[in-house]
Amino acid sequence: MSENAPGIIKDRDLPAPAIDPTNKPFWDAAREGRLMVGFCHDTDRHFFYPRGSSPFTLSPNVSLVEAKGTGTIYSFSIMRVATPYAIAYVELDEGPRILTNIVDCPLDSIRIGQKVKVVFKPTTAEGAPVPMFAPV
Amino acid sequence: MSLRGTACIVGAFEHPTRKADDRSVAQLHADVAWGALQDAGLAKDDIDGYFCAGDAPGMGPVNMADYLGLEKLRHADSTDFGGSSYLAHVAHAAAAIAAGRCNVALITLAGRPRAEAMATGTAPRSWGVNVPDDPFEIPMGRTVAGAYGLCAMRHMHEFGTTSEQLAWIKVAASHHAFHNPNAMLKKKVTVEDVVNSPLVADPLHRLDCCVISDGGGALIVTRPEIAKTLKRPLISVRGTGEMIKHQAGGTIDLTYSGARASGAAAFAEAGVTPADIRYASIYDSFTITVLIQLEDLGFCEKGRGGAFVADGNLISGVGRLAFNTDGGGLCNNHPANRGGMTKIIEAVRQLRGEAHPAVQVPDLTLALAHGTGGLLGTRHGSATLILERL
User: Fold this and answer.
1) Are B18 and B114 in contact (CB under 8 A)?
2) Is residue B132 within 8 angstroms of chain A, CB to CB?
3) Residue B178 falls within a domain, yes or no?
4) What CATH number has the domain bearing residue B86?
5) Would an 8 Å CB–CB cutoff place B149 in contact with chain A?
């Protein structure tokens, strides 16, 4: 676990994501620091979470594509547990709203509409890192 | 085919326990099944349809039919979309009865999260194995309270809803629970009590949350011809609706729930409007759950829920719409972390005229019961029932 500056949200132990044959390419890319999203070729729309078929048409005509990793906070909530954290939906610049955390900033500074960029945080047991977001 | 008038609720029973240290989950199911049969004036071997959801142990109807000794079953249904499942079960029972698949349906719910010291709302939790969204959300610390906090935060941002307005929902529930000797929280609270209670998942406070309790409930649903031979008032299914709402590939809008569709379907089937409803059982896992559902069901415009619930408008005998007159999940009981069953039971009490006299809505002939199962902020199942006293 990394050290945090005073006043900044503390990192916490994150459980490793469960890898399955369909989501593995997403997590392999995460290990390389790349945020991937699904792309539906039938509708020219991005989607999240990625899967092997389009949630818009159910067609298998989909790809995994790299996102820019930037977006805005759609909503958030501070979980007031022993190590508080900020759960959030971030709306990616590509469109999808993804469930994530806001990190590396003071808890009381978070606002809806704030610009954020992806930062990958390590998980336990050498699991794949997970995409969280910090204010730009 | 319309389900209007195809079935009646003739038995309803809520377990009085709120902490079941001495009862197993299966036994709690048996307790409530017996209670509902006694209420209806029917016997075990009258039951030929059985409905249960994810709170039932093992393979649901298979293990429970064995435990309960149900030997005449011709029909079983284990539809599970969380706490609202039992509202859907009533509709599914009506459909099965109309199709001739059964005559007397038993629906049970039971659980003991409190005795098991389950971290219900504040710890990340999966609903099973191979759940495709879990790898993307469990590491993020997705919790029940957090998922509803996300909805409340967005609602406040878009519509200016305040914590004080949300608090009025708890205040109303507490005024009702005051009259319920079985309620976990019997003390009347104020808006200040709610907003001064500790934050759990911003902007939701501890008193914006429902209780964690053990217990359960059961219903008996049958065809009208049989219902007329029994001694209980005729509580008829008049309107039904269901909707699954989810993230839709990332296009999720947190300001509304599946109630928008399930409510519209139920009102259309019933041929009535929200203006006709004076009592409603509204799923109340959190105060924000109530507010968003009331808007979606059409009791007020989207975004106006804060003004609608304020100033005691949900208190029986005081406001426009009496809600959850047993104290609801917010103050009375939220057995197995699933509030749908108790919503139906209190609506039945109201229609029978058997609610506590201090909260009974006079001359009631129509009632609505509505639930949200799963998580409002990620994916959930909504189910709406409109019931009528014939």
Assistant:
1) yes
2) yes
3) no
4) 3.40.47.10
5) yes
Residues of A in contact with B122 (CB under 8 A): 79, 81
Threshold 0.95, pTM exceeds:
yes
Tell me whether 0.90 is exceeded by the ipTM. yes
Residues from chain A contacting residue B151 (CB–CB below 8 Å): 75
Question: Which token pair is B260?
Answer: 């928008």
Assess contact for B355 and B346: CB atoms under 8 A: yes
Yes or no, beta carbons of B153 and A75 under 8 Å apart: yes
Domain for residue B180, yes or no?
Answer: no
For B202, the closest of A78, A98, A123 (CB atoms) is A78
Domain boundaries defined on chain A: 24-135
The total of structural domains in chain B comes to 1
pLDDT in tens, A50-98: 999 999 999 999 999 999 999 999 999 999 999 999 999 999 999 999 9
* Residue range(s) defining the domain that contains residue B292: 8-116+210-389
Residue B185 resides in a domain: no
Neighbours of B161 (CB within 10 A): 25
Q: B336 has which bridge partners?
A: none
DSSP E strands: which ranges in B156-214?
Answer: 199-201, 204-205
A positions 92-111 inside 8 Å of B (CB): 92, 95-101
Return the percentage of chain B with pLDDT > 90, whole number. 96
pLDDT digits (tens, 9 = 90+) for B230-276: 999 999 999 999 999 999 999 999 999 999 999 999 999 999 999 99
Tokens of B106: 């038993």
**A-B interface: how many C-beta pairs under 8 angstroms?**
123
Q: Which residues of A touch B130 (CB under 8 A)?
A: 20
User: Under CATH, which number does the domain A24-135 receive?
Assistant: 2.40.50.840
Single-letter residue type at A43: T
Query: How high is the mean pLDDT of chain B?
Result: 97
Q: Kindly list the distances between the CA atom of residue B116 and the CA atoms of B22, B67, B144, B184, B310, in Å, as whole numbers in the listed order.
A: 11, 21, 18, 17, 36
